DNA sequence: TCATGAAGGCTGCCATAGCAGATGGCACAT
DNA sequence: ATGTGCCATCTGCTATGGCAGCCTTCATGA
């Protein structure tokens, strides 16, 4: 049970909120989510509200809330009066979640193109610049951080709670696959940079359709690089 | 507080599970959600865990869980130690949720095209037939019911919990607008029928791209008919 | 040997009680 | 009349305990 005592978590965006002021349920949720995506809690692991609460040193109530959220995210499945188990997500599950994320990121980009204010656009430009410098410096870790912030800014620009929460869960889901994609080939970093620039251009031009298409293609291609989706050179076949 | 005592709920799909065996939290969630989307709890209404629990005749714990889920759905917003309030969702919010739903429904259709089994395809054909007959009989209510089941079948065919839950929340969100769209003009029913037929054809052809495109267009157009999105005759402008 | 069933230990679920933080009003001083 | 500090009262949040199902187990009987 020492897994829950791990210190760091790889999602700097959410760290902005003070760790101490967060509710116990929220902390338990993030901790469990990180433990699952990092493999500390492999699929099939049985999770008991009581024992987990004891391991975390808190009551069973916040733990229960955290498990409920994880269930909504599809990370655990609980049979009533039976137990809660970490869900199985093999490659096909990962691919599913990735395609769903591509769709939602596209919708977020479209909405952001309509209502992003000047400050947000400036912040996006700053993150793009940071990504550029990190790319030239050959620092994939900094690129990854700027990448996360870039997307988080777009999510926030929509002002839609449902979208923000869903995308936060989905991005946490395949965070590991995303950094792996960035480190795959040396050509990957500048390509991601170019795509981000294209997305930002569409946002500045207030063009929802283009922003959505580019963002969607960006996510899908990063999934292919990460090995979660098969490469599809031909996407033009149609049904009569 | 008699609003929570209302009997019927307009989502026949979820009624398949026995009402008695559902947890109190689940029942409270659906009840509150229906009360909100039907306007019984207008935006800005303050909701107290305790008083609401007393009105429902249950403890505060299940009510709290229901409120957390509604918060994830973006229907309520709660300030810590301050209170919970029904969120404001004017036309622009409705439009947002509609576009998000279009994106997710598209993803669901794409996944369903890959892994829907023969039984599901047959069931979809049956619902299409039912929709056809209801259309010819001039029964918009039956068309609406078959419509909901058609989409629910596709959602279930994906086998993705996250997708299923998200779409259930989104569809509950603008259920009223959807029936209004179906009853808008007499040409609407056969058009929806044709679009469904086209989607099913793409599913049977195992063509994810076409299925996604058609489903997405179908949802977007129904949103336009419902007045939630402006009509966009030209969608081909691009950013250089 | 094998079916059976009762008991104990699990599980998630719910009710109750009490906590700290936030709010509004009121008395008081300026 | 206005600013100020205190207190009753509200809120969401958490801890504790007990409930009803589910599952395993082992003694009992045929």
Automatic annotation (TrEMBL), chains A, B:
HTH gntR-type domain: residues covered: 22-89
**GO molecular function terms here?**
DNA-binding transcription factor activity; sequence-specific DNA binding
Record's protein name? GntR family transcriptional regulator
What InterPro entries does the record tag this protein with?
Answer: AsnC-type_HTH_dom, GntR_C, TF_FadR/GntR_C, Tscrpt_reg_HTH_GntR, WH-like_DNA-bd_sf, WH_DNA-bd_sf
What keywords are annotated for this sequence in UniProt? DNA-binding, Transcription, Transcription regulation
| Top-level taxon in the UniProt lineage | Bacteria
The organism's taxonomic lineage, starting at the top:
Bacteria, Pseudomonadati, Pseudomonadota, Alphaproteobacteria, Acetobacterales
Q: State the SUPFAM superfamilies in the record.
A: GntR ligand-binding domain-like, Winged helix' DNA-binding domain
